[in-house]
């Protein structure tokens, strides 16, 4: 009854499974998020490579009765090994993977495209990690159908004034005007940051990352987007717990 299927996919997570095997969580283009068992992945030199951050065409067996997938082969497009050479970059990539797992709601084609580009850019632009982080969260909001409006308050529908500082409503999980804000969060966004986010949110990912941002502004907007990520996640993110991404870039 087993069927051969294949899809472009990225390995988000990998844990030991039994003595010799690993259980992988894949973000696939065609089947969304799936768990896949890679048999003999731990010791055999012949075992199929499926390290975290690997991007490629994955060939699987699907058992429709048990509803499980087994990894058969993979044609790698990118291993993204460069990410592992830097602790901070590695954390950023793990944060992306965790956020994709937690927000498993948007369409998988767009999520795969975004994560694939973001991991590529973490390899090629290790000096731009803050901007890559900001743009990853901003673009993921859009994909999940939670696109933030930085031009008007989504609750009272009042357009923001040019120099207005906007706040946040934690029940809605959305930026809003001062009157509509909840008091349990200090998330605020100044007019400069708002202009940057409005300008870049419609751009494709690499063009958005290329937009210049001062170090100070990048630090502030990054802190904001990391907290935003916690809201859309619905729970604390393990990759933010140590505070490394908040302080390192
Ligand atoms: Zn309002």
Report what the structure shows.
With 249 residues, the chain is of the alpha+beta class. It has 2 domains: 3-78, Nucleic acid-binding proteins (OB fold (Dihydrolipoamide Acetyltransferase, E2P), Beta Barrel), CATH 2.40.50.140; 82-248, Up-down Bundle (de novo design (two linked rop proteins)). It has 8 helices and 7 strands; from the N terminus they run βββββαααββααααα. The protein has helices at 87-102, 108-124, 129-143, 191-200, 205-210, 215-233, 238-241, 244-248; strands at 3-17, 21-28, 32-38, 55-63, 68-78, 167-169, 174-176. The strands form 2 sheets. Strands 1-2-3-5-4 form a 5-stranded mixed beta barrel. A two-stranded antiparallel sheet has the order 6-7. Helix 1 packs antiparallel against helix 2 (108-124) and helix 1 (87-102) packs parallel to helix 3 (129-143). The radius of gyration is 20 Å and the shape is elongated. It starts with a strand and ends with a helix. The mean pLDDT is 92. It binds zinc ion.
């Amino acid at each position: 009854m087993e069927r051969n299927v294949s899809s472009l996919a990225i390995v988000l997570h990998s844990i030991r499974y039994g003595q010799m095997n690993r259980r992988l969580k894949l973000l696939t283009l065609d089947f969304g998020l799936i768990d896949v068992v890679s048999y003999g992945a731990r010791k055999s030199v012949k075992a199929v490579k499926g390290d975290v951050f690997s991007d490629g065409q994955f060939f699987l067996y699907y058992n429709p009765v048990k509803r499980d997938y087994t990894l058969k082969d993979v044609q790698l497009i990118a291993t993204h090994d460069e990410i592992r050479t830097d602790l901070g970059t590695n954390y950023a990539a793990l944060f992306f993977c965790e956020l994709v797992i937690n927000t498993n709601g948007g369409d998988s084609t767009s999520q795969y495209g975004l994560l694939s580009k973001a991991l590529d850019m973490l390899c090629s632009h290790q000096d731009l990690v803050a901007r890559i982080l900001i743009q990853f969260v901003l673009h993921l909001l859009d994909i999940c159908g939670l696109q933030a409006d930085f031009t008007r308050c989504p609750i009272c529908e009042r357009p923001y004034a040019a120099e207005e500082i906007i706040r946040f409503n934690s029940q809605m999980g959305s930026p809003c005007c001062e009157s509509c804000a909840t008091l349990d969060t200090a998330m605020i966004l100044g007019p400069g940051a708002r202009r940057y986010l409005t300008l870049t949110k419609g751009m494709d990912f690499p063009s958005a990352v290329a937009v210049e941002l001062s170090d100070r502004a990048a630090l502030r907007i990054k802190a904001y987007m990391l907290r935003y990520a916690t809201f859309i996640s619905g729970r604390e993110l393990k990759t933010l717990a140590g505070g490394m991404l908040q302080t390192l870039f």
